[in-house]
Write a structure and sequence with these properties.
The protein is α+β, with helices and mostly antiparallel strands and 725 residues long. It folds into 3 domains: 233 residues, 3-Layer(aba) Sandwich (Cytosolic phospholipase A2 catalytic domain), CATH 3.40.1090.10; 66 residues, membrane protein fhac (Ubiquitin-like (UB roll), Roll), CATH 3.10.20; 312 residues, Porin (Beta Barrel). It has 15 helices and 32 strands. α2 runs antiparallel to α4 and α2 crosses α11. 36% of the residues are buried.
Length: 725
């Protein structure tokens, strides 16, 4: 019996040893496929979080558009928690902006944005041309570089911590393109390039846009990578029951959605597990609702748990999987030993590299690099500037990739200004500015303004930066025809036609991106006569000679409806010769705008201005008050005088109940105004009114619609399109 027990124990031991030595069964490889869907693509983060919590290894990732972004972050080694933290910190108003941030513009480009606050510009390179997208995509590129910087110029995306592919569409060949090598950030930029919104990305002979057009759910690609089992996360557009009432843009957008959903449906047949989270009540542009999207993705994974849990591995195997991923992850921390600029040449390249020397020899600060990139595009002639890691002579550095605008320079900006404060006198003006860059020298430019409508004007200035430095000379010429209303009380009694033809020369100094001071001489011929009203009113004709000086400082955060910062402009014109000028006199004026934030949703704008001729009584007084945001309860230019002052205080609050973003800059406004324009100091008592309405930043400029009630019962309903404050 003892012998039998010994034999049984021995056999059991041998059996256990054999079982331990036997290799574990081969685990089937899992592919995760993530579809596009703009902000709805945030659901993918919730799905990944559930997969990690339940020890489900992902061996391959393929994605399109926002699915490409989330998939690319995961493939680069990020955990679900790191992806979550990264996305929550993104300021989507900065990422999706069509232009460089206002503070990073040069002072001349700030003038463009303030004078013509429109999102549209045209170029005249090889004829009149529009940009290839509403946004060049620089904000997206800089956001991508924050995590994808170490993965530049890769032989294959198989070398990422998790092998990865993303999809793009080539506009040249009209075919779907699998992006599998090169720069990871550029691949993600291509897959997210929604046509018409972001400019296409050039890549060799290809022009790449959003991959969702032809393959929004690349299950087939994940299969070719080697995946045995496919987990597909897709987002379908819900049926549109109101399709019969869609606008032109609505029909176009819905048609694209139908096409994208159709190609995704075909690929779904290849998937093993399908997750389709409920996105009811959430829109593609709701970037500020990330947390809700992420939760719904997680909930969908919970709902499909009984299928997904069959793919889970044990704790030991899971830890080995995580360790292998982290071992392949590259770190972004390094100190660049050189900076080189690609995309421009000659003196332009030298100047840019010189401006970036502060990045050399210091630990990489992506926020600082981002700032330098937007300062480059803030010059106005480049569409994007981004960066990748580079190696030269065994040293690590940065390669700055600068892309010039494809449509210009020269650059043409145009805007339509509407002022509906008078029922019988709606003021309409089309204004435009044509700018030739580096005309006659670096940072020099030839700028011509023209407008047609209630005011017809042509002003052309050559701005010559001496030696490319801060000192400049600015000769100019101008023609100006405008109408001037004269009032008696609340009644318009006459209208003058005023014609000016003149020239001038200024010298000045530019203070980088925030201001300039200039002074010079001006000569102009004035012809002002009554066009409507009593012929007994005086006319003026003759040549005026004057010296002038101007100072301007712009520290605002935004041009149209600023949330914080200040703007100050002051000037004086010393008129020393001309019709009815018996002795020299000054025309002094100043304007200040101050914006102060109160919370994420609300802020206050204070607008102050004033002017005087220092006691000189002239026929056509230069200062006026009346009209929207200039004593709004009065008629346009109802008050006129040789002295003026104004104070406007406006409380602004986001209309949607969310913090203001690029996609949501509409406010309701409540304001108080006081001011006057007068000749006799004894007539300078202030006029008071209250103002209410809705203000919005639109692609066509600022828009304000509302009403005002004055101190004596005056009241007006009005609208304004163009410049507001």
């Amino acid at each position: 019996m003892k012998l039998l027990k010994f034999i049984l124990v021995l056999l059991l031991a041998v059996s256990c040893a054999a079982a331990q030595d036997r290799p574990a069964p081969h685990r089937k490889k899992i592919g995760l496929v993530l579809s596009g869907g703009s902000a709805r693509g945030f659901i993918h983060v919730g799905v990944i979080r559930w997969l990690e919590e339940n020890r489900i290894p992902v061996d391959y990732v393929a994605g399109t558009s926002m699915g490409g972004l989330v998939g690319g972050m995961y493939a680069s080694g990020f955990t679900a928690q790191e992806i979550d933290t990264f996305i929550r910190k993104i300021q989507w108003s900065d990422v999706l902006r069509p232009d460089p941030p206002y503070p990073d513009l040069t002072f001349r480009r700030k003038q463009d944005r303030r004078d013509l606050p429109t999102a549209f510009e045209l170029g005249m390179r090889g004829g009149l041309r529009a940009p290839s997208g509403l946004s060049p995509g620089e904000g997206v590129e800089l956001m991508l570089a924050r995590f994808a910087l170490p993965y530049g110029r890769m032989r294959s995306f198989d070398d990422l911590p998790t092998p990865f592919r993303c999809m793009a569409t080539d506009l040249v060949e009209g075919k779907s393109v699998v992006l599998e090598d090169g720069d990871l950030a550029q691949a993600l930029r291509a897959t997210m390039s929604l046509p018409g919104v972001f400019a296409p990305l050039p890549r060799g002979n290809q022009m790449l846009v959003d991959g969702g057009l032809l393959n929004n759910l690349p299950v087939d690609v994940a299969k070719k990578m080697g995946a045995d089992i496919i987990i597909a996360v897709t987002i379908f557009e819900p049926p549109n029951r109101d399709a019969a009432h869609l606008s032109l843009l609505g029909v176009a957008g819905r048609s694209i959605d139908v096409m994208i959903d159709d190609n995704a449906q075909r690929n779904l047949q290849l998937a093993d597990v399908i997750l389709s989270p409920d996105t009811t009540g959430l829109e593609k542009a709701d970037f500020d609702l990330y947390a809700e999207f992420e939760r719904r993705g997680y909930d969908e994974a919970v709902r499909k748990a009984r299928f997904l849990e069959t793919l889970a591995v044990g704790e030991t195997e899971w830890q080995a999987f995580l360790a292998a991923r982290q071992a392949r992850r590259r770190q972004i921390a390094f100190a660049p030993q050189f900076v080189e600029v690609e995309g421009v040449s000659g003196r332009e390249k030298e100047n840019l590299e010189k401006s970036l020397r502060s990045l050399v020899g210091h630990p990489l600060d992506t926020a600082q690099v981002d700032k330098e990139m937007t300062r480059i595009t803030g010059l106005g002639r480049y569409s994007t500037a981004d960066y990748v890691m580079a190696e030269k002579n065994g040293q690590a550095g940065l390669r700055i990739i600068v892309r010039e605008k494809t449509h210009g320079p020269p650059i043409l900006k145009a805007i339509m200004n509407l002022d509906g404060s008078e029922i019988d006198d709606v003021r309409f003006e089309v204004a435009a500015r044509l700018t030739f860059f580096d005309f006659g020298g670096p940072h020099s430019e030839w700028r011509t303004d023209f407008s047609f409508g209630n005011r017809n004007r042509l002003v052309s200035e050559y701005y010559w930066r001496i030696g490319g430095g801060p000192v400049f000379l600015a000769p100019r010429g101008f023609v100006d025809y405008s109408r001037i209303n004269l009032y008696s009380g609340d009644f318009r009694i006459a209208q003058y036609a005023q014609n000016k033809l003149g020239t001038g020369l200024d010298a000045g100094v530019s203070f980088g991106r925030w201001g300039e001071v200039r002074a010079g001489y001006e000569l102009n011929h004035l012809d002002a006569h009554v066009s409507t009203g009593s012929a007994a009113l005086p006319s003026i004709e003759g040549i005026y000679h004057s010296f002038r000086a101007q100072w301007a400082v712009d520290r605002l955060q935004q041009a149209i409806i600023p949330r914080h910062g200040f703007f100050w402009r002051a000037g004086t014109q010393w008129i020393f010769d001309g019709p009815q000028v018996t002795q020299p006199y000054p025309v002094i004026e100043s304007q200040i705008t101050i914006a102060v934030p109160l919370s994420n949703r609300s802020h206050v704008i204070t607008a102050l201005s004033g002017g005087t001729t220092a006691g000189k009584n002239v026929v056509l007084a230069p200062f006026t008050m009346g009209g929207p945001v200039r004593l709004s309860a009065l008629g346009q230019d109802q008050l006129r005088g040789t002295n003026s002052y104004y104070g406007g205080f406006f409380f602004m609050r986001s209309l949607s109940g969310r913090p203001a973003t690029l996609l949501n800059r509409t406010y309701w406004s409540l304001g108080y105004e006081l001011g006057s324009a007068f000749r006799d100091v004894n007539q300078g008592s202030p006029f008071h009114d209250g103002i209410f309405g809705v203000a919005s930043e639109t692609p066509l400029g600022g828009f304000f619609v509302g009403g005002s009630v004055g101190q004596n019962g005056e009241h007006k309903l009005f609208f304004r399109l163009g410049r507001l404050f």
